[in-house]
Amino acid sequence: MDPFLILLTLTLIILAQNAVRIVGKSQINQSIWNLYLRYSNDQQILKLRNLKAESYDVYKQRSNTSAQDEYAKWTKLNRKYDQLQTEIKAVSDQVSQQQQAIEKYLGLAISVTTTLPLWLFRFKYRKQPLFYFPKDTFPSYLEWILSFPSVPQGSIGIMFWILLLNKFVSNLEFIVKTFSTKVEKPVPIVKVEDLSPK
Questions:
Q1: Radius of gyration of the chain measured on its C-alpha atoms
Q2: What is the mean pLDDT of residues 100-129?
Q3: 12-50 pLDDT, tens per residue?
Q4: With CB atoms counted within 10 Å of each terminal CB, which end of the chain scores lower, N or C?
Q5: How far apart are CA 104 and CA 126, in angstroms?
């Protein structure tokens, strides 16, 4: 494989891996689950949606009905509302179990797609130099470190490239967080002499 293509692919994989780390798996899982809830044709989810809509309608009717003037109607609506809440809880528990299963598989898929390619690249291209630098640019011990573990001295291998990219992304994240954080204005210091009566 062409070294430039390896560099580009590794860069994209590491950027994706760090994006997942920065955003968080739980946030990604929640976003995908919300999309699934919105566009799913699953019977349990549709049933839950209908029960919640019906419960809201009964709640509005009950709220608009006077408990003193129309006691029978209010009691009937209250019983229906309680029954709907019980059904919603039962269906919500089933949907929650479904959500946990989906989040488990999503977490596994995210881990596999961001970790496995790096391991495969490390194994397959560990002896292939990605690029060379001019001879005697660095001292020999530094050239050995840059080429560690198994590429020829005077070149940069995949392991060091991954290390550099991860360090670059973490430093970039630090800089962005530092400059995007709002700093409060300092409170002026008041001297005791200024507070004393004159």
A1: 30
A2: 89
A3: 999 999 889 888 888 998 999 889 888 888 888 889 889
A4: C
A5: 32
